[in-house]
Each structure stands twice: as structure tokens, then as C-alpha cells.
Amino acid sequence: FSFCTGAMDNRSFQQGSFSSFRSSSSDEDLMDIPGTAMDFSMRDDVPPLDREVEEDKSYNGGGIGSSNRIMDFLEEPIPGVGTYDDFNTIDWVREKSRDRDRHREITNKSKESTWALIHSVSDAFSGWLLMLLIGLLSGSLAGLIDISAHWMTDLKEGICTGGFWFNHEHCCWNSEHVTFEDRDKCPEWNSWSQLIISTDEGAFAYIVNYFMYVLWALLFAFLAVSLVKVFAPYACGSGIPEIKTILSGFIIRGYLGKWTLVIKTITLVLAVSSGLSLGKEGPLVHVACCCGNILCHCFNKYRKNEAKRREVLSAAAAAGVSVAFGAPIGGVLFSLEEVSYYFPLKTLWRSFFAALVAAFTLRSINPFGNSRLVLFYVEFHTPWHLFELVPFILLGIFGGLWGALFIRTNIAWCRKRKTTQLGKYPVVEVLVVTAITAILAFPNEYTRMSTSELISELFNDCGLLDSSKLCDYENHFNTSKGGELPDRPAGRGVYSAMWQLALTLILKIVITIFTFGMKIPSGLFIPSMAVGAIAGRLLGVGMEQLAYYHHDWAIFNSWCSQGADCITPGLYAMVGAAACLGGVTRMTVSLVVIMFELTGGLEYIVPLMAAAMTSKWVADALGREGIYDAHIRLNGYPFLEAKEEFAHKTLAMDVMKPRRNDPLLTVLTQDSMTVEDIETIISETTYSGFPVVVSRESQRLVGFVLRRDLIISIENARKKQDGVVSTSIIYFTEHSPPMPPYTPPTLKLRNILDLSPFTVTDLTPMEIVVDIFRKLGLRQCLVTHNGRLLGIITKKDVLKHIAQMANQDPDSILFN
Amino acid sequence: FSFCTGAMDNRSFQQGSFSSFRSSSSDEDLMDIPGTAMDFSMRDDVPPLDREVEEDKSYNGGGIGSSNRIMDFLEEPIPGVGTYDDFNTIDWVREKSRDRDRHREITNKSKESTWALIHSVSDAFSGWLLMLLIGLLSGSLAGLIDISAHWMTDLKEGICTGGFWFNHEHCCWNSEHVTFEDRDKCPEWNSWSQLIISTDEGAFAYIVNYFMYVLWALLFAFLAVSLVKVFAPYACGSGIPEIKTILSGFIIRGYLGKWTLVIKTITLVLAVSSGLSLGKEGPLVHVACCCGNILCHCFNKYRKNEAKRREVLSAAAAAGVSVAFGAPIGGVLFSLEEVSYYFPLKTLWRSFFAALVAAFTLRSINPFGNSRLVLFYVEFHTPWHLFELVPFILLGIFGGLWGALFIRTNIAWCRKRKTTQLGKYPVVEVLVVTAITAILAFPNEYTRMSTSELISELFNDCGLLDSSKLCDYENHFNTSKGGELPDRPAGRGVYSAMWQLALTLILKIVITIFTFGMKIPSGLFIPSMAVGAIAGRLLGVGMEQLAYYHHDWAIFNSWCSQGADCITPGLYAMVGAAACLGGVTRMTVSLVVIMFELTGGLEYIVPLMAAAMTSKWVADALGREGIYDAHIRLNGYPFLEAKEEFAHKTLAMDVMKPRRNDPLLTVLTQDSMTVEDIETIISETTYSGFPVVVSRESQRLVGFVLRRDLIISIENARKKQDGVVSTSIIYFTEHSPPMPPYTPPTLKLRNILDLSPFTVTDLTPMEIVVDIFRKLGLRQCLVTHNGRLLGIITKKDVLKHIAQMANQDPDSILFN
């Protein structure tokens, strides 16, 4: 029994819920037949045609073609025609055309009656309503997840006797015995040792607490992995690679379904609470997309159209990031930059609306208890100095190196999981990693606290009243000027915190590599940011002490006099977090905007940008792909990267099927094949579509017909249309010629014929072909030479070719 | 002598600098011949071909086509081939291919020597360097413009005796005789009456000041209009419609040249200083794009490639908005949403970089003297209440109505200017409008001050120390709680300010309609924002007084107790400004982001968004186009709108040339035409390109050749290649057959043949064709039926068809 990872794995496509994948993926491969010899030059032996004259007859009716076509559209469509099988690529052009037809029909009808007018208006506003609902639902879910995760994280340490449903913070809010100094100590909050052995002191109590901590962590992790395994295999991982693939036009049924939503929401809380090195940000995008997809079913406009639905999913992804960080603008830019494929500008505004509604829903739930929209609100009081760009750039280099290292090792580990026995024991794997994490984490307070708390503390600028170890400076109040706190020498607390943070850094770096890709919901934003924030804080405190003790050095003395507040270590933490996140995800503008929304300071855009830019350059130099693209490639999703330019100088004829030496392209003729002929072709081949030509000899292209539509139509005709038998001739022409009496009735299938298939010439450079596939969202493209049909290129051929050009084995790469 | 307006006008295309336009625009129209009778059905009479067999011979060599093609590319290109004439549309696909070839060549060479490696690296970083330079230059220019405009605006009122180069504010900064209360009164600053009649009191002094004010305004306006007229006709208007057109792939030489830059910078200062109702924001985008275009000439990569250069211009536009408002993120989004056409995600990051550098350059110049990056920094202390959404939405409705009204009346006036005698006297027009503006503006202090100062004052939340009339409330300090100022009853100053603001509103509304489109640089952002800010402030003060006097009303009493600070009139002004700007420009996300960056408060996104959304809906209901699109249509620029979907159900065959009854498509054959034949065709037609077919009878498409390339190549061959004469046969095939002796040498032109022309079938819906043109940036597309070439669709045909479908006369619309 196997299921997916962040990372759907190898076997999952062959077994279980993925069983249909192999066959349908080869469906998609229209021309995948091992070849027998046939050279292109042989084509000259094709005899000249007498048919050549007649073949244009079908055009006779061309003058009234346009009105005829509209008639065809108003005909009742055969049910099933125009839908897709699971694990197929959608045809954006066709979907958009269908939506425009629908829209036109509604607009035309709206003049007829008041009811139709209302329908038309409600149709126009349904998009906005949908956005509102997505915002509300995903905001509420995010709030729910935040609150539950907070409570369950605290459950690992103790329980509130004032009400078990309170978390540590709320428990002590309600208490009367709390001073401001010891906000988190109150009699109502009992650690497990207090409950079990009635004391919180001594080695034994420590061991009890340690034991309970690990036990809870294991319990949560076990629940999470079991729920994912049993109920919703798609709920694991961050989901962003799969969502990118879906948005690029692939169909994975159930990936955004209600079961996935429910299980992902629950297991996300469990996974976060278990103390593993993972975040909830990526999975929240998946949750929001599930919401979007489910809500689409309430609206005809979106339910029936795969392209329109993907527009909604883009907006939902924006809402997901928006609630993950409380950053609506950053969310929209993230969706634009990272997730979306076809992002019409129209959806920009709607995405923003959804993101904003989601953020405000979350704020009114107020899970952080601070009325702030954002996760890590910080306020720095000191401007940064130009010289500080040097350490910021160093942090950028660190972030880039960490990003590249993480991607390489994580991918290597995930590949090992896919290819070895390891992948067969997901539950054991999760439990082992959880146990190691929990055992190593408990003794160190910075690993014991939840990662987002840690980041929050690292970002924080030390005030006078801060009592944490990180703020344990030696105070010399006489040197302060104004309300600012000057740079001060570090106290013992700071030094011990530095050591603990260094250990935390090592643990996080190592354990995150093994955690991301396990069979539980796991995001990467928070762990990456934590790594960067720790490194940044360490460097920041180092700089601060250097400036304090050596303010007479040339690099300092121009701007950092004694007793001034020159260096803000919290800012370094923030810059480091941005650098590491950038190195892993290769986000650019959205990263800077998210960080700036997180912290609310326009002043710090330049440091953030310097670090993010360095980090991206360094990481790109070591490997072009971000973590999501790497996982897409690892899992062989049919994703045509929109950002990378195709750099090789191959031509369409090098890519198209049939290859040289392959048998001829399987084509249908427009007016000479019988039902039986076509049924034979259907049963003998697995191609998902067939070009229709005037005649086999001339190879003049008329149109393209999809296998699925053909099968459904013939079946339908056999059932309903009187007298259609195996010897009936199928006509794809506009008018069938008058038939002699006593011949079987003909079957007219022009209505399922795509009369505007895309064609390119055989000498078209592949870079242009790739561009066409990307920008128009094609599923296949026909190749002609001097007006004769020569071959076909499918999206899969393009992907294979790109993989081949990048020196990867094309077959091992795709759909493995 | 005529020149352009915001709004290039009618005659300008026929006379003066535009003289080449008519002819070249008809060049572009490949198939524009009045028709003789030829019906499509006639095609069936075409005899069957014996050639049909031989025609594929050229494919014999196909096997080595790919390597041959590379050889062709390495051949020394004929100079001039691959460039464009003025007023032509570029072919994005071809430009991009060329850039990729160039890139490949550099990458391949980089392995050969260190020097080539350095070249390759410097080539890769030249984009970033260019962005840096654009940021620095446009930031500096913006600073220069700000400072000069500030000084010259004050010059209308008086002069500083401490140094004539000081503006009013700086003059008094340097003075020792200044109290905080009367910051702007100091002995060094002399009004004109003080200088001329040595007094500032009395009616006569007032008249002297009035007279001088009008005189200076007229002088500045006259200088501006004369400079534009004499030196750089392109420098007028906001420039955004033209930049949109250029970015969509049109060539207007000189529009972004150095003369335009110099004159626009100077005249912009003059125009702003003259006190006309115009802003500098739109023109700053033009200035930044000029910088970008000029700096492109320093880099081979961008100088020679029209597509790459447009990427740079997109980024420059972002930098322009960034310095106009001090809003780098807003600038990038503005460029993305409003200006750019092909915005590859790669440029998003670069645009952001350029925008940021520009903003920081401007900040270090510090033209506003407040160390703020932004134009109107405000800080509000009170949160907004949900109920206030009602007035915010009212402001949105006002903004939408104003936007729709403005666009209609302004376009009507501009059309009048184009079609009547009015347009012949641009100088007189400018002087008259300036005189009216100045005469009406002087008596009212809110019209006398510069518009951006006015907006700044309207946005401002009244503090205790504010001494302006707008803040003249009756103080009841006993009711204040905490540091906040409660709502207070308005004093006499506020009431008189309200009257003056109402008059200002009317003046601005009326005069802006006549100002925008005159023959001087004029932006629209600031006047629109001013209108909205005044309306917002009026409503805000009204609400405030209502809440003060009727705090027991049901709508107030739940949240607005007596003595609380409930209503912030400055926020209303801000929301109103956003609404009006949105109504005029139809910006959405970028508008909200700019407003939020302007004021620095994430908290107010919801009010801004509510107003912007309402405004857009209301304005869209009254007219689909924003002001820039309206001006594009008014001037007939060949701009294919990327946002609007084509909603009609026409087919490619309805749009293609030749129309039914027209003569056959002019085609070249691949191996049977002589130099003379082709020269005859070139001289007899004006089409900018010709399809090449296997034979006239079969109409099987081989490729497409551009007129310009053909002329240059034939000329070049006649000059250089020995023995090419009129009877030489031109071969477009790969191999020319062996010739009998004593025949003239052949001319091989396969290298200028585009072997991958885009084709669609005649039954392709136009919505798909429009989509292809937009997304791929095509210049023309060939139409086939069953593999036979049937016709051609150019970008201009598409634009004409769209105009026709929208019930506009296609010929009066385009290029008039």
C-alpha cells in the first residue's frame, strides 16, 4: 500500500489510487509506437493525385460555413464530449472558446427576459462572490489551524487546569496570579511533571516532562501519517509542486477534493504540533486551493470549465499565502510569480480581493491575539547604514548556499526514498524522524519552542523590558540618548543564547532535509526562514559587539559613535530569513514584498533586496531550479516551465512523431472511412487524437478529432441514430454527397471535429514551438511541410525533448 | 506647422515630422487593394497539378536542414535585413529568436577564450547594469524636476533676497527671523509687490501680485509650448498612450529620443510651474522611458533588438512611477498592469530593482526636504469603522462618475481640437487656458498653491499645532482622552475653507478637461487626485461634524461616543483621491498599492480597495475604456488591447485578405520567378511581405518573405554578386537544380525566407486569432484551407476588424 509524498512517488502511479495513470499517460502520447523503417524522402514516391481536384469540394459550402457553425453550437451537445479523463492535459484554447460561447449565449439571451437578465448579471458577479467565499473559508480555516496548532503545541508541555482547551498563553491570561515579568508562569498552567509527580523541580521531573514531550510528538506524528495514509494520500507534502502542475493545465482528480481538504487541515495541525521541522505555509496554499476548487462546484461557470477554474485556483493560492503570512499583496505576487501559469490580468484584481478578504477574516479571528494582521510584526527604530550592506550580502551568500545545498540533498534523499525500500515504510520513517527531532529538541529551549515563535523572537529588537536571554545585555543607561537603547555589551545570557542558537542552526539544517518530502503535510517557508533568521541573528549580534568594542575602527567611526544604537540584530535576522527563503524557493519580488509586509517597514526594502538578489544569484549559479521545480521534475509531472527559455537549436521536425523510420502518421480521411475502419484504428492505437485529412495521398489537413469524443460519438450514434452500422461511412465534411439507395445511413461527425488545429511547419525552431505551447496552452500541434501533414507534436513530446536536451533520460523523467 | 498632442493630431500624420506615416502605414497593410470579382468557389476550377509531385523535391535535403540552417545563421547577414521602418509593427517572434541566437552564440564562444568568457559574463550582467543606470538617471532627473518646479512655482509669488535660487521654504529656513508659528513669513522673502511698490498691504499691492502671478504663469506656459513646438513635438502630453503603443510593438522613432528627453524635462518644469491643472507623474514615466531608450544604445544586446529593448522600457516605466510617487512596488505593478504588453516574469525583478534604485536616488536628492521617500506621507491615528465603508463607497461612486465624465468630455474636446480650426493655434490655446486658470486661481488660496501641496494639506490629519484654516476647530481640551485629538466642532476657518474648497473643486473639474491634451507635457494623476481629495475632505468634514453633533444617532452611538476621535477627514480625502484616480485610469491593484505606499499604512487597504472597486465598476458601466485607451483609440494607434476579450463570433475567413471578390493573393513561387518578375511585383504592390508557395496552382505554402528584406537582398545581389541580371531566377528552395550552361546565374534567397510562418485555418474563430496575435506578438498570419494558402491576416486587419465589430468606422479609426 503506497501513497504520495511531497513528491508523489514511483509506485503510486502504478498502484492504488494512481492505477489509471500509466494507461492514460500513454493515451496522451499520441505517437509513441516503436518504429519501422520509413524515411521522409520516401514521400516523393507518393503518386500524384486525381483526388486533388475533388478534395476541395467540401469548401463549396464555405460561404455559409459561419452560420452553419453557429447552428452546430446550438445543437444539443452529446454528453461527455468536451470533458477530460484523469491525468490528462487540458486544451486551454478549447476551454476558453467554450467559455466565450457560454458567455455570448448568456449575453444574447439577457435581452429576451428579465429572468435571463438577472441570470446574466448574477453570472457576471459570480466570480466576485466566489472570491469572497474563498477568502472567508480559507481565512477561517487558517484561523482554526493556527488556534489548534497553538493549543496542541502547548499540550506537549503541559495542560491548563482552568480549562483544558486553553493554551499556555490564554491559560495565564485568565489567571489572577500573573505579573508582567512572568507572563507565562501561572498556577493554572501545569506541566506534565506537576500533574504526574506533583513537582516541577529536579531531574526526575525533567525526565517526566522530556518523556511526555517526546510521547506527544510521536502520537501527533503517528496520527498525522496514519490519517494521510488511510484517507487522503494526496494530503501530504506542501502541495505547491502539484498545484503548479494543475494550474499549468493538468488534471489530477481528487487532489483538490473535499477529503483532501479535511484530512490536510487535520493532519497539518498534527504535523505542526508534533514539533517537526516544518511549516504550515505551503500546505495552507493547498488548503486554500481545495477551498477554491470545492466552491467552484457551486457555480456553473466554473464547475464546467477547466480553464476558468484554474483562474479561480490562482486567486485561491494568493489567498493561501495571504493567510499564511498576513500579507495580501505578497500573496498576490507569490501567486503571480511562483504558482500561476496563465494569469490574465483580470484575475490580478480578483486575487487581490480574495487575498484581502482572507487576511481580514483571519484578523477578525485573531489567532495571534495581538490584533495584527501579520505573523511577525516588528518595529525597528534605527535606520540601517550603507556599510551594513556588506554583512547583508554575506547573509545573501549564506542563504544561496543553504538553498542550493538543501535542494540537492533533499532531492537526493527523496530520490532514495522513491527508489529504495525506504519508501515502503512511511509511518516508520515519520516516527523515527519525529523521535529524533523531539529528543534533540527538548533540551534546547530554542528548538523546543515552535519555529514561528523562534523566528518571532529572533526578529525582535531588544527593548528595555525584554526579559529573554537574547536581550540579556549589560545595561549602561547613562550612555543612552533620547528614548533609544544604545548598543550595549552582551551579557552572559546572550552568550549562552548564541551557543544554543548555533546548535539549533545545525539541527534545523540537518533535520529539515529529511523532513521535507515525508508523507505528512509539510511546508518549507518557516524552516527556511528559521535557518536564515538564526544565522542572521548570530551575525547581527557579532556585528553589534564588534561595533561596541571597536567603534573606533575606520569602518565604524564615521557612523557609529559610542553610546549610539548602530546595529539592530533583529534586522539581520530578518534579512537572513529572506535570504534563505529566497535561496530555497527562488522567489524574488514576492519574497521582498512578503518580508516587507510581515514587518511593516518600507525602509528596509533595500537590505532585503540586496540579500534576496545575492541569494538568488548564488543559488542559481549552483543549480537553476527552485525546490518546487526540483520536486516537479523528480516526480515527472508534465509541467512546462514558463520562466526558463528553451535554449537549443532544434527544429519541430526533430521532435515530431512519427520519427524517421517510424510508420506513417495515423490519420482519418474526411469522407471515405467506415465506422468499422475507425473502430479498428481506435482499438489498435492508443493515441488520444487523430488528424483528419482530405485523403491519405494528399495529406491535406482538415481538422483534428479527439479519441474520447470519437468513441463517445460513435457509441451514441449506434444507440440513437437508426441504422448506423459498421459499414456506415463517417463524414467529417460539411455536406455528405447524395447516396445511392440501399446504402447504410452515413454518420456525420463534423461537430466533434476541431476545424482549427494549430499547425507549424517542420522547420519551425523548437524555441518557437515551446513558446506556442506555453503561451497558448496547447495540448498538441500538427506539423506540416509545404502544406502536407507530416506529423504531430504533443505537450509530452515537448517535455521529453526538453528533458533530453538537458541531458536527462526522457523516459525516466516523465511520469515515473 | 503642426505637432502632436497627448493626442498626436490628425495633420501631424500628414505633414512635418510624420510625413512618412501615411505611406508606411499602408505598407503595413499587406492586402489593401480594392477588389475585383473572384469568388472562393472558383478555386475548384484550378486544374490538377503535375507539379504536385515535384513540388516536394525541395524537401529532399530536409534531412540536413537543421545543420544547414545553422550555417545560414553564421553567414554574414546583409546589412539592413531584419530591421524595421518607422511606424511599423515589430515581429516579436522574430526578435526573440534573434536574441536567442545571439545569446547562444555568445555562450558557445565563451568556452573558447577568457576574453569571450568575460564578454559572456558582462553580457549577462549588462541588463542589471542598465537597470542601475536607468534608476540613477531617472531618479536624478525627477529630483531636478521637483526642485526646479518648486522654485519656479514660488517665483510666481515672489523672490528671495537672500539668494534668488532659493524657493520660499528654503529662503525662510536660512533666515534667523522666523518663528515656528509663521514658518513661511520671513524678511528675506519678498513678494513682487514688496519689491515693486515696497508694500504688501492694500488693494494695489494685491493687484500687483495678481498681475505678476498671471504674467509669470503666461511666460512659463508660452516658453513650454514654444519649446515643445519648435524642438520636440513628441514631448507633449502625458506620453503614456504612446508608450503603451510602443511597448505593444510599434516603432515611433524619436519618441523616446534624446531631444524629447531634454525638451520634455524642461517644459515639464515650466508647465507645472505655470499653475495649470496638470501633474508631472505621467510625463515622468515618459522621461524615464526616454532614459531607458537612450541608455539602451550603450549595450549591444538592447540596441539591436526591439523586443529586448521593450523589456527595458517596461522596467523604465516602473522606475518612472516609482519616482513620481516614491512608490517602487506600486510602480512595478503599474507597469505590469497598465503599461506593459509582454511582461516576462524575468523583468519583474529587474523592474523592481530599477524602481528601487530610482526611488533611492530621488530620496538622496531629497527634493521634498523631509527625508521621506513618498510624496504625501501621512499618519493617521485612528482606525476606521466598518460603517464608514458607506461614505467610502459613496466616494467610489463619485470617483467613477467623475472618471467617466472626464473621459467623455476630454475625448470630445480633443476630437474637436483635431477636427476643427482650434488645433491650428496650439500656442494661443495654451495661453488662453493658462490665463483663465491663473486669473481664477489667484484669489483662492487653495487654487493658488501647487496642486501637490493642496493634496498634501487635504490628506493631513489635523494636529494640535496645525495653524491652517482647515484645522481651525474650536478646541475643548477637557474632552480629549489620551494623546488623541477628539472630534471637535468646526470653527469659522473650517467653514470658509469648505467654501473655498468647493469652488476649487468646480474649477479643477472644469479646467482639467480642457488642459489634458494640450500641446504641453501634462499628467493626469495629480489633478484627478486633487478632485477626489477635495470631494473626500468635504465629505469627511461633513461626517465629522455630523458625528460630533449627532453622536447619539443610531449609526454613530455604537462606536462614536462624545469626545472620541471617530472620523479622520484626511482619510476620506485619501480614499476620494484613490477613487477619482481609479475612475480616470481604471487602475486596480497598482492604484491601491501606490496609495498605500504613498501613505504608509497597511491598515487602510480595505477602505481604499472598496472605493477603487466601486469606482471602477461605476466607471466601467458608463464606458469601458480608461483615459489612456481612449486616447489611443482617438489617435488610432495600432494597439491591440491585451485585457479586453474579443467577444464576437467571426472566423478568420471573414477577416483575411483577399476578401471575396478581391483579386488573388499576391504570392511568389519558390523556384520559377525571375528577378524582374519579383521587382515588378514589388513596384506594383505596397504589401510589406509576400508568401512564397511551391507553385501558384497548388498554393502550398513554403514560407514568408518581407518586402524590405527582399528589396535589400536583390539590391545587394545586383551590386555584389557577379552576373545577377533581370532574367536570373530567384530560388527560395534549399538546392537550386543544375542549370544548363549559358543561363544567367541564379539568386538564392532562402536565407531571408521565414520558413516558419504562422498559419491558421480559415475556420479558426477570430477570438483565437486575436489571442494568437496578442500572446505571440505576431505581425501577420497566413490563412489556409485544407492545406492550401488562401489569404493573410495582418495585425492591422485584426485591429480594423475589432473596430468594425465595435461599430466604429474602421478606416476613420486607424492611423487618422
TrEMBL record, chains A, B:
GO BP, one annotated term: endocytosis
Subcellular location: Cell membrane; Endosome membrane; Golgi apparatus membrane; Membrane
Keywords: Antiport, ATP-binding, CBS domain, Cell membrane, Chloride, Endosome, Golgi apparatus, Ion transport, Membrane, Nucleotide-binding, Repeat, Transmembrane, Transmembrane helix, Transport, Ubl conjugation
GO CC, any one term: early endosome
Recorded topology in the membrane: Multi-pass membrane protein
Gene Ontology terms for molecular function: antiporter activity; ATP binding; identical protein binding; voltage-gated chloride channel activity
Family: Belongs to the chloride channel (TC 2.A.49) family. ClC-5/CLCN5 subfamily.
Protein name (database record): Chloride channel protein
Protein's job: Proton-coupled chloride transporter. Functions as antiport system and exchanges chloride ions against protons. Important for normal acidification of the endosome lumen. May play an important role in renal tubular function. The CLC channel family contains both chloride channels and proton-coupled anion transporters that exchange chloride or another anion for protons. The absence of conserved gating glutamate residues is typical for family members that function as channels.
SMART domains assigned: CBS
Domain CBS: 656-720, 752-812
Residue ranges of the TM segments: 125-145, 210-235, 312-336, 386-405, 425-442, 497-518, 524-543
Repeat among keywords: yes
Organism of derivation: Otolemur garnettii (Small-eared galago)
Pfam families from the UniProt entry: CBS, Voltage_CLC
Record-linked InterPro entries: CBS_dom, CBS_dom_sf, Cl-channel_core, Cl_channel-5, ClC
Chief place where the protein resides: membrane
Reactions the enzyme catalyzes: 2 chloride(in) + H(+)(out) = 2 chloride(out) + H(+)(in)
